[in-house]
Amino acid sequence: MSRTRVLLLLAFLALAAALAACGDDSDDSGDDSAATASGCKPAQLQTAEEGTLTVGTDKPAFPPYFVGNDPTNGKGFESAVAYAIAGRLGYQRGDVKWTVVPFNASYAPGPKDFDFDVNQISITPDRAKQVDFSTPYYEAEQAVVALKGSGAAKAKSLDDLKDTRFGVQIGTTSLDAVNDVVEPSTEARVYDNSNDVISALKQGQVDAVVVDVPTALYLTAVQVPEATVAGQFSAPGGDTWGALLEKDSPLTACVSKAVEELKSSGELPKIEQRWMSQAAGAPVLD
Predict the structure, then answer these.
(1) CATH class of 142-233
(2) Could you tell me the pTM of the whole model?
(3) What single-letter DSSP state applies at residue 74?
(4) Which member of 134, 164, 165, 231 lies 3.0 to 4.6 Å from 283 by CB, making a disulfide possible if both were Cys?
(5) CA 58 to CA 65: how far, in whole Å?
(6) What contacts 24+ positions apart, CB below 8 Å, involve 66-74?
(7) For domain 3-31+38-122+249-280, is the CATH number 3.90.1170.30?
(8) CA 253, 55, 240: angle at the middle one, nearest 5?
(9) Percentage of the chain surpassing pLDDT 70?
Protein backbone atom coordinates (compact mmCIF):
# COMPACT_ATOMS: atom_id res chain seq x y z
CA MET A 1 0.00 0.00 0.00
CA SER A 2 1.30 3.43 -0.88
CA ARG A 3 1.98 6.09 1.73
CA THR A 4 -0.79 8.18 0.15
CA ARG A 5 -3.29 5.33 0.55
CA VAL A 6 -2.30 4.80 4.16
CA LEU A 7 -2.79 8.48 4.91
CA LEU A 8 -6.14 8.43 3.12
CA LEU A 9 -7.47 5.53 5.15
CA LEU A 10 -6.14 6.93 8.41
CA ALA A 11 -7.78 10.25 7.63
CA PHE A 12 -11.05 8.51 6.84
CA LEU A 13 -10.98 6.58 10.13
CA ALA A 14 -10.16 9.73 12.07
CA LEU A 15 -12.96 11.61 10.38
CA ALA A 16 -15.46 8.84 11.04
CA ALA A 17 -14.49 8.68 14.69
CA ALA A 18 -14.73 12.43 15.12
CA LEU A 19 -18.10 12.65 13.43
CA ALA A 20 -19.53 9.71 15.34
CA ALA A 21 -18.62 11.53 18.54
CA CYS A 22 -20.57 14.60 17.53
CA GLY A 23 -23.80 15.36 19.30
CA ASP A 24 -27.23 15.88 17.78
CA ASP A 25 -26.68 19.58 17.27
CA SER A 26 -25.64 19.06 13.64
CA ASP A 27 -26.50 21.83 11.20
CA ASP A 28 -27.10 19.17 8.51
CA SER A 29 -30.36 17.76 9.86
CA GLY A 30 -32.57 20.31 8.16
CA ASP A 31 -34.60 20.92 11.33
CA ASP A 32 -33.85 24.63 11.40
CA SER A 33 -34.15 25.24 7.67
CA ALA A 34 -35.52 28.74 7.23
CA ALA A 35 -36.69 28.16 3.67
CA THR A 36 -39.47 25.70 2.84
CA ALA A 37 -39.85 24.55 -0.75
CA SER A 38 -42.44 26.88 -2.30
CA GLY A 39 -45.93 25.36 -2.42
CA CYS A 40 -44.75 22.21 -0.64
CA LYS A 41 -45.81 22.25 2.99
CA PRO A 42 -46.98 19.40 5.24
CA ALA A 43 -50.63 20.46 5.07
CA GLN A 44 -50.46 20.29 1.26
CA LEU A 45 -48.58 17.00 0.92
CA GLN A 46 -50.20 13.58 0.48
CA THR A 47 -47.91 11.45 2.63
CA ALA A 48 -48.23 7.79 3.62
CA GLU A 49 -49.08 8.88 7.16
CA GLU A 50 -50.73 12.23 7.78
CA GLY A 51 -48.42 14.77 9.38
CA THR A 52 -45.42 12.44 9.05
CA LEU A 53 -42.73 12.04 6.40
CA THR A 54 -41.79 8.36 6.09
CA VAL A 55 -38.29 7.70 4.73
CA GLY A 56 -37.02 4.27 3.72
CA THR A 57 -33.55 2.73 3.63
CA ASP A 58 -31.99 -0.71 3.91
CA LYS A 59 -30.67 -2.44 7.03
CA PRO A 60 -27.86 -2.62 7.94
CA ALA A 61 -27.16 1.02 7.09
CA PHE A 62 -23.43 1.59 6.61
CA PRO A 63 -21.14 4.64 6.89
CA PRO A 64 -20.51 7.06 5.35
CA TYR A 65 -24.20 7.15 4.49
CA PHE A 66 -25.38 6.38 8.02
CA VAL A 67 -23.52 6.19 11.32
CA GLY A 68 -24.08 3.57 14.01
CA ASN A 69 -26.57 1.67 11.81
CA ASP A 70 -29.10 4.27 12.95
CA PRO A 71 -30.70 6.43 10.22
CA THR A 72 -32.64 8.41 12.82
CA ASN A 73 -29.60 10.14 14.34
CA GLY A 74 -29.00 12.52 11.41
CA LYS A 75 -25.37 11.39 11.08
CA GLY A 76 -24.01 10.20 7.76
CA PHE A 77 -24.52 11.55 4.25
CA GLU A 78 -27.92 10.10 3.39
CA SER A 79 -29.36 10.56 6.85
CA ALA A 80 -28.36 14.23 6.70
CA VAL A 81 -29.74 14.58 3.16
CA ALA A 82 -33.07 13.05 4.16
CA TYR A 83 -33.48 15.39 7.13
CA ALA A 84 -32.44 18.36 4.97
CA ILE A 85 -35.13 17.45 2.41
CA ALA A 86 -37.63 17.09 5.24
CA GLY A 87 -36.66 20.52 6.55
CA ARG A 88 -37.19 22.09 3.13
CA LEU A 89 -40.66 20.52 3.06
CA GLY A 90 -41.49 22.01 6.44
CA TYR A 91 -41.13 18.90 8.61
CA GLN A 92 -39.40 18.96 11.97
CA ARG A 93 -37.02 16.14 12.86
CA GLY A 94 -39.63 14.53 15.10
CA ASP A 95 -42.03 14.38 12.15
CA VAL A 96 -39.70 12.09 10.20
CA LYS A 97 -40.25 8.33 10.50
CA TRP A 98 -37.78 5.75 9.16
CA THR A 99 -38.71 2.33 7.78
CA VAL A 100 -36.62 -0.60 6.53
CA VAL A 101 -36.78 -1.17 2.77
CA PRO A 102 -34.51 -3.85 1.20
CA PHE A 103 -32.52 -2.44 -1.72
CA ASN A 104 -34.06 -4.59 -4.46
CA ALA A 105 -37.58 -4.09 -3.10
CA SER A 106 -37.27 -0.31 -3.25
CA TYR A 107 -37.52 -0.06 -7.03
CA ALA A 108 -39.90 -2.99 -7.57
CA PRO A 109 -43.19 -1.87 -9.16
CA GLY A 110 -46.25 -1.32 -7.00
CA PRO A 111 -47.47 0.71 -4.01
CA LYS A 112 -44.92 1.89 -1.42
CA ASP A 113 -45.31 2.24 2.35
CA PHE A 114 -42.78 5.10 2.41
CA ASP A 115 -42.78 8.63 1.01
CA PHE A 116 -39.25 8.45 -0.36
CA ASP A 117 -36.26 6.13 -0.05
CA VAL A 118 -32.54 7.00 0.15
CA ASN A 119 -30.19 4.04 -0.25
CA GLN A 120 -27.51 4.88 -2.85
CA ILE A 121 -30.11 4.06 -5.51
CA SER A 122 -28.85 4.85 -8.98
CA ILE A 123 -31.21 6.48 -11.43
CA THR A 124 -31.57 4.18 -14.47
CA PRO A 125 -34.07 4.13 -17.36
CA ASP A 126 -35.35 0.67 -16.39
CA ARG A 127 -35.95 1.66 -12.77
CA ALA A 128 -37.56 4.93 -13.85
CA LYS A 129 -40.24 2.90 -15.64
CA GLN A 130 -41.33 1.46 -12.29
CA VAL A 131 -40.70 4.26 -9.79
CA ASP A 132 -40.09 8.00 -9.64
CA PHE A 133 -36.76 9.63 -8.84
CA SER A 134 -36.07 13.10 -7.53
CA THR A 135 -33.47 15.43 -8.93
CA PRO A 136 -30.10 13.70 -8.21
CA TYR A 137 -28.48 14.48 -4.88
CA TYR A 138 -25.12 12.74 -5.56
CA GLU A 139 -22.99 11.37 -8.38
CA ALA A 140 -20.75 8.42 -7.56
CA GLU A 141 -17.90 6.64 -9.28
CA GLN A 142 -17.41 2.87 -9.06
CA ALA A 143 -14.46 1.35 -7.20
CA VAL A 144 -12.58 -1.94 -7.35
CA VAL A 145 -11.81 -3.40 -3.92
CA ALA A 146 -9.30 -6.25 -3.97
CA LEU A 147 -7.52 -8.44 -1.46
CA LYS A 148 -4.02 -7.18 -0.75
CA GLY A 149 -1.41 -9.16 -2.63
CA SER A 150 -3.82 -10.21 -5.38
CA GLY A 151 -3.25 -9.34 -9.00
CA ALA A 152 -6.33 -7.10 -8.92
CA ALA A 153 -4.86 -5.03 -6.09
CA LYS A 154 -1.89 -4.18 -8.32
CA ALA A 155 -4.01 -3.17 -11.32
CA LYS A 156 -3.07 0.10 -13.01
CA SER A 157 -5.75 -0.05 -15.70
CA LEU A 158 -9.06 -1.74 -16.46
CA ASP A 159 -7.24 -4.08 -18.87
CA ASP A 160 -5.27 -5.41 -15.90
CA LEU A 161 -8.58 -6.66 -14.42
CA LYS A 162 -9.71 -8.85 -17.31
CA ASP A 163 -8.84 -12.12 -15.54
CA THR A 164 -10.19 -11.07 -12.15
CA ARG A 165 -12.95 -13.03 -10.39
CA PHE A 166 -15.43 -10.34 -9.36
CA GLY A 167 -18.20 -10.39 -6.79
CA VAL A 168 -21.09 -7.92 -7.06
CA GLN A 169 -24.51 -7.39 -5.49
CA ILE A 170 -27.45 -8.31 -7.69
CA GLY A 171 -29.53 -5.53 -9.18
CA THR A 172 -26.86 -2.83 -8.78
CA THR A 173 -25.24 -0.54 -11.31
CA SER A 174 -21.94 -1.96 -10.06
CA LEU A 175 -22.86 -5.23 -11.78
CA ASP A 176 -23.55 -3.30 -15.00
CA ALA A 177 -20.21 -1.54 -14.59
CA VAL A 178 -18.36 -4.85 -14.31
CA ASN A 179 -20.11 -6.36 -17.33
CA ASP A 180 -20.08 -3.30 -19.58
CA VAL A 181 -16.85 -1.52 -18.64
CA VAL A 182 -14.41 -4.05 -17.18
CA GLU A 183 -15.71 -7.00 -19.26
CA PRO A 184 -13.83 -9.73 -17.33
CA SER A 185 -13.09 -13.05 -18.98
CA THR A 186 -14.86 -14.85 -16.13
CA GLU A 187 -18.51 -14.05 -15.35
CA ALA A 188 -18.92 -12.10 -12.13
CA ARG A 189 -20.37 -13.92 -9.13
CA VAL A 190 -23.60 -12.28 -8.06
CA TYR A 191 -24.78 -12.08 -4.43
CA ASP A 192 -28.11 -11.19 -2.87
CA ASN A 193 -26.88 -8.43 -0.55
CA SER A 194 -23.85 -6.38 0.43
CA ASN A 195 -23.02 -8.58 3.42
CA ASP A 196 -22.70 -11.61 1.13
CA VAL A 197 -20.44 -9.65 -1.21
CA ILE A 198 -18.16 -8.70 1.69
CA SER A 199 -18.09 -12.28 3.01
CA ALA A 200 -17.14 -13.59 -0.43
CA LEU A 201 -14.20 -11.18 -0.55
CA LYS A 202 -13.05 -12.04 2.98
CA GLN A 203 -13.21 -15.77 2.29
CA GLY A 204 -11.34 -15.51 -1.00
CA GLN A 205 -14.29 -16.70 -3.08
CA VAL A 206 -13.60 -13.71 -5.33
CA ASP A 207 -10.50 -11.66 -6.02
CA ALA A 208 -12.25 -8.31 -6.00
CA VAL A 209 -15.63 -6.64 -5.64
CA VAL A 210 -17.08 -3.50 -7.21
CA VAL A 211 -18.99 -0.95 -5.13
CA ASP A 212 -19.32 2.84 -5.16
CA VAL A 213 -16.24 4.76 -4.02
CA PRO A 214 -17.47 5.94 -0.58
CA THR A 215 -18.53 2.39 0.29
CA ALA A 216 -15.14 1.11 -0.88
CA LEU A 217 -13.30 3.48 1.44
CA TYR A 218 -15.35 2.42 4.44
CA LEU A 219 -15.11 -1.25 3.50
CA THR A 220 -11.30 -1.24 3.35
CA ALA A 221 -10.86 0.98 6.41
CA VAL A 222 -13.23 -0.89 8.72
CA GLN A 223 -14.91 -4.03 7.38
CA VAL A 224 -12.15 -5.70 5.35
CA PRO A 225 -8.81 -4.17 6.34
CA GLU A 226 -7.06 -6.97 4.46
CA ALA A 227 -8.38 -5.43 1.24
CA THR A 228 -7.43 -2.26 -0.61
CA VAL A 229 -9.03 0.15 -3.08
CA ALA A 230 -7.36 -0.69 -6.38
CA GLY A 231 -8.96 2.29 -8.09
CA GLN A 232 -12.11 3.98 -9.34
CA PHE A 233 -13.81 4.29 -12.73
CA SER A 234 -16.97 5.75 -14.24
CA ALA A 235 -20.15 3.71 -14.60
CA PRO A 236 -22.01 3.60 -17.94
CA GLY A 237 -23.82 6.89 -18.42
CA GLY A 238 -22.71 8.12 -15.01
CA ASP A 239 -24.07 6.95 -11.68
CA THR A 240 -26.38 9.48 -10.08
CA TRP A 241 -28.46 8.82 -6.98
CA GLY A 242 -31.91 10.21 -6.36
CA ALA A 243 -34.60 9.92 -3.72
CA LEU A 244 -36.90 7.11 -4.88
CA LEU A 245 -40.67 7.50 -4.77
CA GLU A 246 -43.70 5.50 -5.85
CA LYS A 247 -44.46 5.82 -9.57
CA ASP A 248 -46.38 9.03 -10.27
CA SER A 249 -46.14 10.04 -6.62
CA PRO A 250 -47.73 13.42 -5.83
CA LEU A 251 -44.60 14.15 -3.78
CA THR A 252 -42.02 13.79 -6.55
CA ALA A 253 -42.07 17.42 -7.70
CA CYS A 254 -41.79 18.72 -4.14
CA VAL A 255 -38.93 16.39 -3.21
CA SER A 256 -37.08 17.38 -6.40
CA LYS A 257 -37.69 21.05 -5.61
CA ALA A 258 -36.30 20.53 -2.13
CA VAL A 259 -33.13 18.90 -3.52
CA GLU A 260 -32.70 21.70 -6.04
CA GLU A 261 -33.03 24.34 -3.31
CA LEU A 262 -30.53 22.47 -1.14
CA LYS A 263 -28.09 22.59 -4.04
CA SER A 264 -28.61 26.25 -4.88
CA SER A 265 -28.43 27.35 -1.24
CA GLY A 266 -25.11 25.56 -0.75
CA GLU A 267 -26.49 23.29 1.98
CA LEU A 268 -26.19 20.07 -0.05
CA PRO A 269 -22.55 20.72 -1.04
CA LYS A 270 -21.75 21.30 2.65
CA ILE A 271 -23.36 17.98 3.60
CA GLU A 272 -21.43 16.22 0.84
CA GLN A 273 -18.16 17.82 1.88
CA ARG A 274 -18.66 16.80 5.50
CA TRP A 275 -19.48 13.15 4.89
CA MET A 276 -18.12 12.25 1.43
CA SER A 277 -14.96 14.30 0.92
CA GLN A 278 -12.66 11.27 1.18
CA ALA A 279 -14.17 9.78 -2.02
CA ALA A 280 -12.06 11.99 -4.29
CA GLY A 281 -8.76 10.40 -3.28
CA ALA A 282 -9.08 6.95 -4.86
CA PRO A 283 -6.77 6.39 -7.90
CA VAL A 284 -8.42 6.37 -11.33
CA LEU A 285 -8.41 3.28 -13.57
CA ASP A 286 -8.63 3.95 -17.34
Answers:
(1) alpha beta
(2) 0.75
(3) -
(4) 231
(5) 11
(6) 67/16, 67/19, 67/20, 68/20, 71/98, 72/96, 72/98, 73/24, 74/24, 74/26, 74/28, 74/29
(7) no
(8) 60
(9) 84
